[in-house]
Amino acid sequence: MQSFQELILRLQTFWAERGCVVQQPYDLEVGAGTMHPDTFLRVLGPEPWNVAYVQPSRRPADARYGENPFRLGKHYQLQVILKPSPKDVQAVYIDSLRALGVDLEIHDLRFEEDNWEAPTLGAWGVGWQVMLDGMEITQFTYFQQAGGIELEPISVEITYGLERITMFLGLSRSVYDVDWVPNGVDYGQVRHQDEVEFSKYYFEVADVGFLKARFDGHEAEARRCLEAGLVLPAYECALKCSHLFNVMDARGAVSVTERVALIKRVRNLAVACARQYVVSREELGFPLLAKNEESSLGKEAMEDVRD
Amino acid sequence: MSGTEFLLEVRSEEIPARMLEPAMRELATRLFEELMALNLAPAEMETGFTLRRLILMLKGLPSRESDREEEMVGPPVRAAFDAEGRPTRAAEGFARKCGVEVEALRRIETDKGEYLAATRSIVGRPTADVLAGMVPGIVEGLGWAKTMRWGIGEGPWVRPIHGVVALCDGEVVPMTVFDVESGCETSGHPVLSSRTFAIRGVSDYRRKMARRQIVVRFEERRQRLQDQLDEAADNLGGELVADAELLNRLTAICEIPGTVIGRFDPAFLSLPREILITSLRDHQSASTLESEGMLLPSFITVMDRPDDPEGRIKAGNEWVVAARLEDARFFFNEDRKTTLEQRKEKLDHVTFHAKLGSYADKTRRTTELTKEICESLDWQDVVEDGVAASNLLKVDLTSEMVKEFTSLQGNVGGLYAEREEYPAQVWQAIYDQYLPASTEDAIPRGRAGQATALADRIDTLVGMFGLGLLPSGSRDPFGLRRAGQGVVRILLEGDLSLDLDLIAAKSVLLFEDLMDRDGQEILSDLRPFLQDRVRHLLGLRGYAYDTIEAALTAGSSNLPDLLARVEALHKVREESDFLSVVLAAKRIANIVREAPQEDLEESRLKEPAERDLHDAAEALRNEIDQAEKQGDYEPGLRAIAKLSEPLDRFFVEVLVMDEDLELRSNRIALLQGIQRMISRTARLTEVVVDKSEHRGRAESKSSSQGRE
Questions:
Q1: Options 3.40.50.2300, 1.20.58.180, 3.40.190.10, 1.10.1740.10; which CATH number does A207-306 get?
Q2: What digits encode the pLDDT tens for the residues B271-289?
Q3: DSSP H or E segment with residue B560
Q4: B334 close contact with A: CB closer than 8 A
Q5: ipTM metric
Q6: Which residue in B114, B160, B231, B638 could disulfide with B150, CB within 3.0 to 4.6 Å?
Q7: Nearest CA to CA, how far is B151 from chain A (Å)?
């Protein structure tokens, strides 16, 4: 059986060999690999960018005290961004499955429509959920908009659900039984206490007043950073707000009307960061853009931002 | 087949199943129409599509456009030749344009004087050239429900395009679709036969696809899947739970049709049937099986390959299904920890519409309206169940199960109510509340269900109309047409003599001051809106448009009564005596249209024909009145038909517009009385008469009668 860490190592190697920057997880709580600045911000503007990284992703509402064999309050994604999206990206993706040891001669692989939308990020894309023998193993998305900005060039995002794939390849009945190390420490031994304690925290212990105060504080700090022209610190504050919102929501502390208002506040921060990020990259002369590529592309993107 | 053949294959990344069929239809129709406009229509056209390709196969195309001649008019003769009679540059230019010598130009006479003219021959283009110019625009312009861009901004199309095969009689038709050049190469299934290969033409394409087990024709793929599903069901000793929509979806998600049969733990069969079916269908695109009304612990789904060589695909699908059903059981058990009654208060937090309040507010209104409906129908024994059902009608919106499977709204509430041992009338009313959702659906099965379903929909209609949110064109975001259709069908099929105007008026009051418009405005929009639904539904039942119109304009307080009028008119309208009366009614309407209301003086009836008409009408008055009052519309209309002879004679022998004004107004009064009498069941002037047909019949009856 393929172990959890082998899966990660193989995918990282595969994408490193295809020219990706192998980045590390973002060192803040995020809900998905998409929120890592190396995705959310880098897909903006004209600069090319290829990256792969693992991102632990927190979904407080999905926490189950370590009792549900399939659902986790924190799971791991392996995220790949290719910008602009290469023409053969699907074939390369299929090759990555082969690199994982998936023998496609005996499996059924299908691409089912699944469009992605993240209102808190002002972002949407078009793509599929990739199904292996009826199991969703990957989200495959062509980003169309992020932070309310139309994207050009287009980035493709490939997000592997690592626990699911490992479980599925071994047909394990529980995520906690999956080997983390080949024939050694298992997923449960690494993570179970984390799931139990954070479930209790999210659902029973978290202090709503404290969370709300932090949300307000981080929002104000984000504004101050933006005013100082510091887009990356501002974006970190926005990520903090997003996570705090998720915790309050899981805690059952958010009414329907509050919910809408809080989502809007996070979205406003994300959109403001996205706009300022493009401006800041332009001021730096779009460093990743090869000299001969300083094309009209960049200028058009700028006009969109200023509209 | 003789003539030119054309093969087009547009190959792309996987197109969403729901968009395939409409796109293929649009592509085929537009290409056919544009070819037709150039007289290049093919003798035969076949289409095929899989999630990765759209395919058009045309045969028997003309090989080229026909050559044609065009009449050209050039400069006036006076500007065409100089004083010496030599052609000017204008004449020479015109000749060049027409491809002839100056000497060959003709002179024609127009109202502006004499002009030069010529016939220009235009050589028709080869069909391949026409297609090269025509196809890219059509393919790029397909109207997808959602489009995307890719790469450095290519598109927009539904998904990135990878290849275009365009072959006319084996030759590549050069064209560019977005960033893709046409050619003769394609590829098969992305995993099983991904190497590219060359195509020589339509039959070569078919052969090479078949060799790769790719079935390009949708119908053929569906049939193959149906056969495989039926065979699998047979082997399992059951039958498929029928679902045509699911079969279409399964056909669209594969190009190599294969099926996989799996089992699940029979312990899951303790979950309600609807939940199992929906979970398997929505999450796994899997069909369920049943035997003698009981589900079997098996499912069948589709794979995009012919076989499952090591049983991994079956094992994988079973693994996922187990996880999914585990989830469904979790939701079910969680939901059932709280009773519907306890859960009800959560509706305060579920918004129905920002201006119309929460679902708790809607529940209060619907409950009141259910009471009104029961009272109005004299259903004292239904009130209690109807109120109980209305009270809990929307509670399942707060359940985990409905959040997971929105298509089970209503069903879930009903199932929970059944398990909480509410009376059958109550849980069934909740369960059936969204019926009829489609034309195949029945209406709610019990009276409590019918009353609550009506109340719920009328509340929605009145509320939305009250905010001015009427559907327009294809925009109907609140599903109001369907709600209206539901109201009309429940009343018609349930044979409920409910006064809709009255109930809608009561509904308006229940909103108090929430709405932007006043009650009269709302009702005067709602009435024609519902009448449109009536027209549509009765039209579907096969009643003629004008029959429906005649009954509708006569006015009817409830739908069963309207239906009885329509049915009576439908039966009687082809009888020739009745048709004579219809024609007379139209004539009467023309004559009295402008006239004021007159009183009849019997003593002034002078001519025998007018006295006879009056006597005949008086003799029938009672019969017609009684029939109308008792709703015996067919005998009533037959009685009216008896006026055919006296009416005909009246119009032949009597001049209504007599110079004597007293006689004239008396005759108008006579006709006004008759008009009132014959137009109560249906407004006869609305009935369209095919005059040529009727004249034949009428004349065979009495040759003396002349008709306009």
A1: 1.20.58.180
A2: 999 999 999 998 889 999 9
A3: helix B559-572
A4: no
A5: 0.91
A6: B160
A7: 5
